[in-house]
Structure formats: structure tokens, C-alpha cells
Amino acid sequence: MKKKTLALVLALTLLVAGVVGGTLAWLTDQTAEVKNTFTVGDINIGLTETTADYKMVPGNTIAKDPTVTVQANSEACWLFVQVTKSENLDTFITYAIAEGWTELQDGVYYREVPASAADQTFSVLAGNTVTVNNTVTKTMLETAKTDAPTLTFKAYAVQKDNVASASDAWAKVNP
């Protein structure tokens, strides 16, 4: 009788385990995996100029076309151009900064550039030219042979997201 009772208890235990296990199998589900891939944003810029020969003749306008390009698919950014001139440049040359640039501080100009699927180009100089002052004399030109005036450009870009102002952005590239 003990064997019969033990067999009955064992059979009932297996039956209950089967019913519970089967019920759990019927009442479970699983979702498809959702994969989150975090990519890195990017800003790519370039600074180009197609002209290179700058002969000073008093009163002449010289083609000079520094252009900053924010390349396609770059993030929205603060775009800067730093214009550095030699101490004697103003004696020889006049120029103006192109429209759209705002002066941040002496020699540093900025603009806000939205994200775009296409390249965005921005001229630095108004009219893509500089003008030789008509007050330049032959003696001054002779001196310029050993101490030539220079005008140098450098471009920077900082993401626009989470950077509140041009001043804050400039501090990130020029601490």
C-alpha cells in the first residue's frame, strides 16, 4: 500500500508540475531585441583660397578669396574665422569682412551655421578682394620687399547643440 500511495503522490506531483509548466509556457512571450546604436556627430570644415599671387600696385584691387566650407552632413555649428594681420598691413592694404560674419573680438568673426545635407560655403572678404592704398609710395614698396605685409586666416567650428553663445563656443577652441 505504501508503494501505491507513493506512486500516486509521485504521479500527482508530475501531473501538477506538467500543468503548471504547460500553463507557464502558454502564458509567456518574448519581444524582438531593440538595439540602440549611439553614433558620433561630426563637423567637418575646410578653408580654401584659389588666388596666390599678390602684387601690390597703389590703388589696385587684388583678388583674394578665402572661403570657409562647412561640409555636407556636419552638425549645426558656430563657425569662426580668425583674421590675423601683420603690424604694417593697414599701411598698405584695406579690406572688409563679408556680410553674414559678426565680429566677436578683434580679428575673430563668427556665424551660426545650421546642419545641412549639402556643403555650405562662406566668403571671408567682401567682394573677395583687398585694395592697395593709393597712398603707398615707391619707398614704402621697397621697404615691403623685406617686411611684406601679411593677412592670415584660420577657421574653427564648434557644435551648436548645448553651447549657448558664440563667446562660449570660442572659449572651447581658444581657451
Topology, element by element:
Elements: H1 2-26, E1 45-48, E2 61-63, E3 67-70, E4 77-85, H2 89-92, E5 93-94, E6 102-105, E7 108-113, E8 120-123, E9 129-132, H3 138-144, E10 151-159, H4 166-173
Antiparallel strand pairs: 1-3, 2-9, 3-8, 4-7, 4-10, 5-9, 6-7
Question: Could you describe the 3D structure shown?
Answer:
This protein is α+β, with helices and mostly antiparallel strands. It has one domain (45-173): Immunoglobulin-like (Sandwich). It has helices at 2-26, 89-92, 138-144, 166-173; strands spanning 45-48, 61-63, 67-70, 77-85, 93-94, 102-105, 108-113, 120-123, 129-132, 151-159. The strands form three sheets. It has a four-stranded antiparallel β-sheet. It has a three-stranded antiparallel β-sheet with strand order 1-3-8, with no helix packed on it. The protein has a three-stranded antiparallel β-sheet with strand order 2-9-5. The longest helix is centred in the N-terminal third of the chain and has 25 residues, at 2-26. It is rod-shaped. The relative contact order is 0.21.
